[in-house]
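quick one, 87 residues, struct below
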Amino acid sequence: MSEEEFNNLEFEEQNKLKERLMNNIKFVAHLFKFSLVSEQIISNIFNSLLKGNDDQGDVSDRTVEGAIILITMVGPQFDSNIRNFEN
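---
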């Protein structure tokens, strides 16, 4: 959903969509913690959150917040997995 479409929604609908996004990100992070999702998928999700939704590449506050939640939840294990892979 583009930023313009998001801004045209009612406040309550915006909150529902943002909450759904955050819950989906947390769910994927938990899947990663149990080794049900690979590092590549986490990397792809992180990159898609930060690439921007519109033609200009502008990133919304909610996607940045989602990226922060994702990296906070998977960061230590992700880093550990990468170090183990390099050795």
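The longest helix spans residues 61-86.
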